[in-house]
Structures are given as C-alpha cells and as structure tokens.
C-alpha cells in the first residue's frame, strides 16, 4: 500500500454526479425499473406472535379478478437452503413473530394484490408468546460473539476492588429504545427469471449487490453466475438494506410462480416494522469509578438486549467502552433475551450508537459529581495506547476534537449549574459527548480500470446509498491514475462489475477506494502513461496493517432548551468536530456527518418503536406515530473536521464517515437537557413527560 | 384496497341522496384521512361520493356579522383569511398548527371535524377496536396510551379526536350547518361530537347521509384576543399531546369573560365550561388559572400502558392552560 501523498481530486468540493438525475426524477430506483408486463406481490402477515398456521383459506383471494397466484407453505417452492431462518419464506407453518409472512399474493396490480392479501383467511394454533425485554429476566444468555465478531465479555483488572476504594462512583442504568431504520425508499425489488436459461435478475434496493447475490443464490441453490443483482441508486438504507431480508426472497419466489412475468414487491411502511430489521432496545448498567482528580479507576458496562428466537443478532453495545478511555479496571458484558419478535439487524453504527449513550451520560454525571468540566474530564482520561489491545493508535485526535469543538461552540466560561439560564420562557443548557467509530476495511473487493476512448473507466460492484460513491470513487481513481477527475467514469451497483463488499461499517470508501487504487497502480505499471484503447487492469484490497488500533473520533456539542411551562424540548444548535482521516469530498462528507447528527438528534428526542407486549408488535408502525425529527426540530447543525493525516489506515488516508455522526449525539442532547433544567434523563427518548416533574410549578418568573 | 364505485355528483343534494341510499357509501372531502383508511382497510366502502368540489368554498359575512365558512373551504385558505386572523386568531393558529402545508391545502372545513381518531389500534385492522368493529374490545385499554384520553373516556374507548381546528371551533361557539336526507338543520359545534360511552363507533351525532355544508362563526368580540397552544412530541407535524384554545377578556385585572377548549385529551374537542366558570369574575392570576384547570380536570382519569401511560397529560394540560391564559392576559395588558 502506498499512501496518496499529494491529492488533487481528493478533497475537491464536487457536486454529486447523480444529483441532477435524482432532482429531475430520472434516476431509476429498484421498484420502477422499466420491465415488460410486471406483476405485483403483497405479503400476508401473521397476526399472532407465536404458534402455527393450521389453515390458510385462499379461495376468496384466488377468485379475485387479476390475482395470478397465492403462495403458501403448501404451494410455494422448496428453497435449497433454510439455514437462515429469516429468509426461509413459506417453508413451514411455524410463526415465530407477529408480522411474519405466512402467504404471498401475486396479482396484476399492487392494489389487487393488497386487497387479495386481506382476503386470505388464516387460522392459527396460537401459543403464549413472550416479546418483552426486561433486564431481570431469568433466561438471559451470553451469545458466543457479538456483532460482527467481537468477544461477548471482557474483563481487565478488578472492577469491584477499584470501585470499593474510589473517591467517586457513578452507577446507573441507561436505556435506549427500539429503533427502526426507516429509509425513505422502502425495501423494494423487481425480480425477473429468464424463462430460457433460468437466470435470475434482481433490481433490488440494497447496500451491496454482491452480498445480496450470495445470499439469494444460496437460498435458491443457484450458481452465483446465474444471478444478477442491479442497484444504481438507493433511497437510504442505514443498515437495513445491508443484508437481504425476506422481501427479496419473496419477490424472487413470486416471479418464479408467474413464469415469464417480472414481479415487483415493495414493503409498505407498516411491513418494514416487522420484516426489514431494526435496532434492539438496550439496557445498559454503567459504572464509573474515579479519583478526585477525575482519573477513572474502574469502568463497567453490562448490557442486556434482545434478539429473535429464529436468528441471533447480538448488537455490540459494550464494545466502544473497551477502548474509549484510559482505565485500568474494566468489564463489559452482553446478555441477550431471545424473544418472539422480528429479527433485529444492523442500524446505523450498531454498537457504537447505543453504546455511547449510557457511558457518555455517565461521564457527564461523573463530571457533575466531581465539579469538573465534562470536556476536561474526558481529556484527563485520554489513553496513550488502545486500552483494549495495547496497540498504538494509528491516529487519535479525540482531544483535538474536544478542544476545537469547545472553541467553536463557545464552551469556555460555561456555568456548570443546571437550571439557572433563562431566555424568555425557555431554560437553556449545553452538553457535550464524545464520538467514536472503528476504521473498517473489508478484506475483499476488486476493481477494474479500463481505458475507453479519452476516458478511464473504473468498475466495481460498490453501492451509493446517497452517500456520494458515484462521485468520490471517481476522485480517488483520478488521483490514483494521475488524471483530471472529469476523465474518470465510475460504474457501480451491478454484479456484472467486479466483486465488492457491502456498504456497511463505514467501510465503503476505505475498501472500494483501496481496490480502485490498487487497480490504478496495476494499470499504470502495466501500460504506463499512454495506455492503448481497452487496456485494462484489476486490483484488489491489500492486506490491512494490523499493527495499529484504528478508530475515528469526534466531539459533539448541543444546546437544549426546555420550555418552563410545558417541558417541550428544542435543540437549536448541534456542533460536531470529527477526526475522520482525509476527507475525499467535503460536500458529501458534510452531508453524511450532518445527516448522522440529525439522526442522533432524532434518536435523542423522538424515535421510539413502541412494542405492545400483549400482541408482540410495534404499534406505532408508521411515520405519523414513529416520530423522526421534522424540519422544525432541526435547526443549526454544524459539522467540522480536523485536518487529519493517517498514513496507516489505507492508501487514501480515509477513516469512514457514514456512521460516526450518530454516535454520542443523544448523550450530548441528554446532557444539555440536564444542564438546562436539572432533569437527568437516562431513558431515551428525552420527552417532555420525563422533564416535567423537574420543572417548577408554577414556574418562577 | 377494495374496489369501489366513485361518483362526483352535480350538487350537494344529489350527493346526500347517493350516500343516504347506500349504507356502504362515504363522502370524500379532501381525502387526507379517508384515502389512508382505504389503503389500510379501515374503511372499505362500496361507493365513494366526492363532495369537496361541490360544497361552498367561500367565506361570507352574513347580516349581524356571522362568518359563514363553506364546507369546501380548504384549511389553508381558512387560516389565511384576513377576517379570521383578526377576529378569531385562535382558529387561524389552530389550523396552522395542524398537519403539513400540503395536507392543509387539501383538507376541507367540512371534513376536518369528521376526521377519525389516530389511535394506533383503530388504524390497525389486526387489533380489536370497538370503534372500528363494535364489540371487539378496546386494545388501547392496557395498551399504548400516550396519545389517548384523560377526560370523558369509557372502558370501551380511550380514543381522542385529532383535529386542532375543531378545538378552536368548540371554543368559539361555532354552529354547524348540516344537509341531510330530510333537509337542512343547524347544530352547535359543541354538540357535533359525542363521548364514546358504550357506542364508540359513532364519533358524532350525524346520521348516515348527513353532509356538513358550512360552519358559522357568530360574532365574539373577545375572540380577538385568543390563542391556540398546541403541545406535541416534535416541533411540527404531530398530533397534540394536549392543546388549549382560549379567549379572555380582562378588565382592571379581572377576567370578565372567557372561552376555553382542550384538544388531545378526549373523544371530543373538549369545551371547558367548568374552567370558564372559575375564570369569569376572578383575578387574572396564576392561582386562578390553576384553579380553572383543576376544576376542569377534577374528573380526569389517566390511562396506564407499556410506555408509562398518559398521566403526564394532567399536569401538562394544567400548565399549558395557565401558560396560554397568562400569555393572553399579558397581551391584553399591552
């Protein structure tokens, strides 16, 4: 790996290459792919949370004009692999969660399919279900590993002994809610089987065409060469399109059931709440012990969360606490309850996002107890090497972010007392929290560089979730080839291009960019400066340098206002400073960071999937009731970054910016709400009912 | 959705005849609520009769000063009307605090008060709901009740009425003009909606085929100093947790007259007569505001639920009423 020392195209503030097509509405998304004579599929979902389907009466649906097929466990094709039980659609009569698909209607129109689905009568042998996560359950278990492959528990030193002699101890329980990714574009697929040769094409809204192909080929027992997945544009995924969910399998099954006709399947917003993944609720018991000067002597984070009974997903909530601060005695644990609930999965910054809520509010509480500034408390606990691995950090600029953020935000001179600042009818406060996210680079991805006329073409099966890949990969290829960026064309989003890994773990640029750089180097080595037409070379991700601990860091500052009478909470200002390596494109980077922070604000104040334990389903399953921050909630959101040069992470020096923006935001907001009104809210979301008891009645004026 | 017949008759009388003659027929106004229900299966009519374009879409001033608002007037036009903004600011504010700009451009004056509850169990055909399917049970009892009633609910239904406009109308002594199969009649706005009791399937006193043609706002001088305060879980585009529509007249520090209604807390836009009685003749002080709230909330009953229930609405409404009245009195003093 050679570091790109003198970037030219990298760092340019270029508009998105796909921007105009999206604004004009000409960018084609999965569901609207032009195909001949499409049919439409609509799932029938279980209305019990656990049990067995004893009868499926499809007669009324089947006689409806326009209905082409009704697939049930009795009529659906047998899948080659049912190992992934989330994807084993219509293979047996078991019901493992409310909302599971028990039948599928295919019809000439989406309206007819939906109507027919409502006419399918399902009889169940219902069994008692258990869908409620509580930390005091007696059936919690330790998973073998936590996502993706971290140890479940870690212990270093002696937390109990250090706590017993500590000057100050903070020990509290913090909870984060269940969250649903809710991308604007629903999970959608257009599926087509070629009658002649049995090839399957899926136009699917996915974060990775190749991983999607691998999963689908396995489920249907197909040679991967017989499956093509195409996805030029994605209307948001946030992790929920990182692995295929059952809707993709259903679309392919439906298309095979109506030979010769492509089938479209888009989940409704309500269906996305049970079929497209979500973030587990977490219960975090956090302990911090410190000397009088603020130096931490012990830290423990014991996490309880849920998974489904049919498929385990263990969110790595305790992982960021393992490396965040210098503390000799540490314990982190994860325990799961396997419940009769839908299958949880990735959601933006799995692990770090919920896992930097409890500890970062606890740090604020510790600062309060010590009478120490919360910025200073964090600086005093800055480690020299990675506390978890002992390795040196490839770069670690948390302190720089905290200082730069404090200066930009106007933190100095802050009165630490809560509930003493007024502006009209509002109490005003400020808060801070740290952010972190690991630098991930996937081990496999290949790119091809080819000369076509006066242009260089870079092909790789990468994804653009709206993040900017179409544009930023061209910038990287331009610098790796030493040509102006206008002369580079990028082709992504198709399994006909070389294999690429998922857009997940903020690894996209670091992984695909590394492959592009290698391909460009191979190209120049082979063909020099004057390559012949159609000259072509490929390159793959080189091995990672594992001598370093590689992480991105950030500091987030929030101003919160709490209404004296009503307890309404507003956040007029969010400011984040990040150390995320080299920025490929400041425009798309800022958009990602601001977007992450906005999502963090939404998590802090609004988002909460409410599961009714009596039914086992999320009852606020639409965007009217599952609140995300609306425009009026999002005021000033500023993202800045340090000029960070890290030659160890990869050839570009990039660290990944897709997820860090959401990490720590909710803690900063909760800390600011405490500073505003004195209510310490440890359970997200921070809503007015949780601060009302702390407000004077009548308000002093 | 279930296929249905669609008609767009020439006049209101024909529309009423069409719906009255078919028990499975519905009126379609702006469609901002019904269209959702068609997709969700909450409504499954055989016949949809479009009336938004054939109802009066103007606001006229009658002799004596009453403002007659045609049922076809869109919410955004009503909110922007100069007479409404000057004489009934509470109504304009209520309208503008509801929904989004796009929805307000569609929603009609006649349709708005007839929108159905947003109770999550009502909107989900897989859960029992007495309002949707009489006798099936109320899932909100013991369920998620953050957005449910604390006043006037029954064991059969905890739903709240979602409209903001209706809360202002209830405070303003508005009157509803209705065209039915047997002709026209007028009913007080506060008599339009009904408490759920044992028959929550009936939101209002209207009979099948009754069509709202206009809403009359009689002159109400004190409403020139009126306000709508809506408290919700996000800054916009959310239904009220609680809301207050209020108008007060103050002389020499004494409240001489008042109109108060609450939203987000009952099956109906809740006219707060008890609070008004406390306010009339009392000094304009924090103690008075709280005594008024306490009088109205004496019979309030919170509901519990997995999310902590809705007991917070009682202190929240008390505080919101006080804040609203305080603001109006301050304005009055200027």
UniProtKB/TrEMBL annotation, chain A:
Does this entry carry the keyword Disulfide bond? no
- Record carries keyword Cytoplasm: no
State the Pfam families in the record: Ald_Xan_dh_C, MoCoBD_1, MoCoBD_2
Residue ranges of domain Aldehyde oxidase/xanthine dehydrogenase a/b hammerhead in the record: 24-128
Which keywords are on file for this protein? Molybdenum, Oxidoreductase
The entry lists its GO molecular-function terms as: iron ion binding; oxidoreductase activity
What's the protein name?
Xanthine dehydrogenase
Native source organism of the sequence? Kitasatospora phosalacinea
TrEMBL record, chain B:
Q: Does the keyword Oxidoreductase apply?
A: yes
Highest taxon of the source?
Bacteria
**Listed Pfam families:** CO_deh_flav_C, FAD_binding_5
List, alphabetically, the SMART domains matched: CO_deh_flav_C
Q: Does the keyword Acetylation apply?
A: no
Q: Name one GO molecular function term.
A: oxidoreductase activity
Task: Tell me the InterPro entries matching this sequence.
Answer: CO_DH_flav_C (IPR005107), CO_DH_flav_C_dom_sf (IPR036683), Diverse_Substr_Oxidored (IPR051312), FAD-bd_PCMH (IPR016166), FAD-bd_PCMH-like_sf (IPR036318), FAD-bd_PCMH_sub1 (IPR016167), FAD-bd_PCMH_sub2 (IPR016169), Mopterin_DH_FAD-bd (IPR002346)
Q: Where is the FAD-binding PCMH-type domain?
A: 1-222
- According to UniProt, the name of this protein is FAD-binding molybdopterin dehydrogenase
Q: State the organism named in the record.
A: Kitasatospora phosalacinea
């Amino acid at each position: 790996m050679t570091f790109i020392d003198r970037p030219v195209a990298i760092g340019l503030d270029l508009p998105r290459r796909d921007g105009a097509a999206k604004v004009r509405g000409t960018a084609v998304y999965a569901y609207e792919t032009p195909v001949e004579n499409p049919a439409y599929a609509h799932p029938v979902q279980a209305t019990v949370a656990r049990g067995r389907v004893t009868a499926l009466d499809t007669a009324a649906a089947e006689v409806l004009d326009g209905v082409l097929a009704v697939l049930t466990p009795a009529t659906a094709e047998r899948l080659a692999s049912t190992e992934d039980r989330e994807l084993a659609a219509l293979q047996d009569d078991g019901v493992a969660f409310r909302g599971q698909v028990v039948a599928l209607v295919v019809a000439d129109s989406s309206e007819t399919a939906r109507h027919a689905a409502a006419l399918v009568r399902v009889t169940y042998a219902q069994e008692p279900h258990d869908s409620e996560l509580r930390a005091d359950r007696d059936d919690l278990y330790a998973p073998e590993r936590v996502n993706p492959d971290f140890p479940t528990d870690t212990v270093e030193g002696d937390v109990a002994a250090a706590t017993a002699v500590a000057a100050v101890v903070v020990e509290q329980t913090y909870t984060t809610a269940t969250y649903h990714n809710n991308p604007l574009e629903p999970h959608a697929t257009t599926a087509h089987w070629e009658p002649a040769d049995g090839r399957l094409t899926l136009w699917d809204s996915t974060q990775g065409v190749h991983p999607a192909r691998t999963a689908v080929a396995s489920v249907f027992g197909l040679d991967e060469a017989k499956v093509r997945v195409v996805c030029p544009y994605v209307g948001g995924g946030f992790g929920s399109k990182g692995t295929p969910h059952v809707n993709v399998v259903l679309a392919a099954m439906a298309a095979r059931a109506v030979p010769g006709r492509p089938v479209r399947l888009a989940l409704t917003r309500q269906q996305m709440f049970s079929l497209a993944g979500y973030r587990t609720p977490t219960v975090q018991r956090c302990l911090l012990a410190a000397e009088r000067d603020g130096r931490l002597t012990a830290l423990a984070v014991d996490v309880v969360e849920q998974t489904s009974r049919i498929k385990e997903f263990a969110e790595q909530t305790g992982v960021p606490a393992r490396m965040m601060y210098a503390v000799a005695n540490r314990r982190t644990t994860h325990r799961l309850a396997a419940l009769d609930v839908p299958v949880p999965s990735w959601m933006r910054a799995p692990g770090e996002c919920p896992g930097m809520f409890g500890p970062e509010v606890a740090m604020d509480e510790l600062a309060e107890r010590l009478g120490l500034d919360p910025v200073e408390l964090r600086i005093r606990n800055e480690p020299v090497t990675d506390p978890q691995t002992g390795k040196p950090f490839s770069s670690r600029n948390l302190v720089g972010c905290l200082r730069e953020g404090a200066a930009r935000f106007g933190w100095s001179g802050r009165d630490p007392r809560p509930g003493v600042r007024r502006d009209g009818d509002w109490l005003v406060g400020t808060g801070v929290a740290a952010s972190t996210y690991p630098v991930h680079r996937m081990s496999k991805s290949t790119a091809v560089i080819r000369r076509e006329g006066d242009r260089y073409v870079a092909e790789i099966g990468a994804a653009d979730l709206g993040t900017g890949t179409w544009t930023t990969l061209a910038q990287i290829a331009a610098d790796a080839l030493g040509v102006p960026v206008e002369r580079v064309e990028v082709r992504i989003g198709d399994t006909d291009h070389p294999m690429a890994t998922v857009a997940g773990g903020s690894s996209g640029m670091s992984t695909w960019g590394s492959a592009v750089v290698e391909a460009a180097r191979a190209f120049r080595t082979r063909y020099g400066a004057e390559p012949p037409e159609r000259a072509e070379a490929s390159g793959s991700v080189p091995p990672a340098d594992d001598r370093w601990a590689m992480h991105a860091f950030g500091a987030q500052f929030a101003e919160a206002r709490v209404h004296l009478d009503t307890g309404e909470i507003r956040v007029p200002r969010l400011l984040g400073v990040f150390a995320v390596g080299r920025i490929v494109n400041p425009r798309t980077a800022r958009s990602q960071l601001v977007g992450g922070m906005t999502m963090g604000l939404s998590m802090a104040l609004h988002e909460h999937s409410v599961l009714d334990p009596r039914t086992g389903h999320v009852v606020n399953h639409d965007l009217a009731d599952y609140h995300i921050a609306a425009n009026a909630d999002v005021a000033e959101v500023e993202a800045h970054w340090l000029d960070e040069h890290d030659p160890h992470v990869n050839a570009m020096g990039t660290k990944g910016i897709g997820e860090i923006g959401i990490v720590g935001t909710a803690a900063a907001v909760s800390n600011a709400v405490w500073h505003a009104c004195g209510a310490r809210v440890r359970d997200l979301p921070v809503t007015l009912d949780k601060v009302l008891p702390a407000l004077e009645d009548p308000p002093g004026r | 959705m279930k296929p249905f017949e669609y008609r767009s008759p020439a006049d209101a009388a024909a529309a009423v005849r069409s719906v009255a003659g078919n028990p499975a027929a519905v009126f379609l106004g702006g469609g901002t609520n019904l269209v959702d229900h068609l997709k969700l299966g909450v409504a499954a009519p055989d016949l949809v009769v479009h009336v938004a374009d054939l109802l009066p879409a103007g606001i006229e001033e009658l002799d004596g000063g009453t403002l007659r608002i045609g049922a076809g007037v869109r919410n955004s036009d009503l909110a922007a009307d100069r007479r409404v903004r000057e004489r009934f600011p509470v109504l304009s504010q209520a309208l503008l605090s509801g929904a989004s700009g796009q929805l307000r451009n569609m929603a009609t004056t006649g349709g708005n008060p007839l929108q159905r509850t947003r109770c999550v169990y009502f909107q989900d055909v897989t859960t029992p709901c007495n309002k949707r399917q009489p006798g099936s049970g109320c899932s909100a009892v013991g369920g998620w009740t953050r957005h449910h009633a604390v006043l006037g609910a029954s064991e059969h239904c905890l739903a709240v009425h979602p409209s903001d406009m209706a809360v202002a109308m209830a405070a303003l002594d508005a009157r509803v003009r209705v065209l039915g199969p047997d002709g026209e009649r007028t009913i007080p706005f506060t008599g339009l909606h009904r408490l759920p009791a044992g028959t929550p399937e009936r939101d209002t006193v209207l009979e099948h085929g009754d069509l709202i043609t206009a809403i009359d706002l009689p002159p109400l001088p004190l409403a020139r100093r009126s306000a709508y305060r809506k408290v919700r879980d996000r800054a916009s585009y959310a239904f009220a947790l609680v809301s207050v529509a209020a108008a007060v007249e103050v002389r020499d520090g004494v409240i001489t007259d008042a109109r108060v209604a609450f939203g987000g807390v009952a099956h109906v836009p809740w006219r707060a007569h008890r609070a008004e009685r406390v306010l009339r003749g009392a000094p304009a002080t924090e103690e008075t505001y709280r005594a008024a709230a306490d009088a109205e909330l004496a019979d309030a009953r919170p509901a519990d639920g997995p999310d902590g229930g809705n007991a917070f609405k009682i202190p929240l409404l008390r505080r919101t009423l006080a804040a609203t009245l305080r603001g109006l009195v301050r304005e009055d003093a200027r």
